[in-house]
Amino acid sequence: MAAATAARLAFADAEGGKWSGLDRTLAALRDGGVLLLDDMDPARYTLAEHRAAIAGVRAALRAQAGLAVVDLPVGSGHIMATMRPRAAVA
User: Fold this and answer.
1) C-alpha of 14 from chain center
2) Of 4, 37, 42, 79, which has the fewest CB atoms closer than 10 Å, so is most exposed?
3) Phi, psi of 49 (to 5 degrees)
């Protein structure tokens, strides 16, 4: 995605873009852009597959080069992340 059309702020509120398609959400984030995810507290989920999905999202975020990630233990469990300039990551 061109920098002029890349997202400065992305709120992944649905399963699509968070549980699935996270790679596309991250690719759409511009340098310095902020990503906010909600419903990330595993304690909210009773099904093991949902807890596994949340764990997978968390692992993918932490593995993403150049992404600074912080847990915000409020509400339904939020994660905020920002993309460092990609040129600085290399």
Assistant:
1) 12
2) 4
3) -65, -35
The pTM of the full predicted model, rounded to 2 decimals, is 0.83
Radius of gyration of the chain (CA): 13
Phi/psi at 21 (5° precision): 80, 15
pLDDT at 73 over 60: yes
Q: Which tokens is 59 given?
A: 């692992």
Neighbours of 54 (CB within 10 A): 22
Q: Cα–Cα distance between 10 and 21 in angstroms, integer?
A: 13
Kind plus residue range of the DSSP H or E element containing 82: strand 78-83
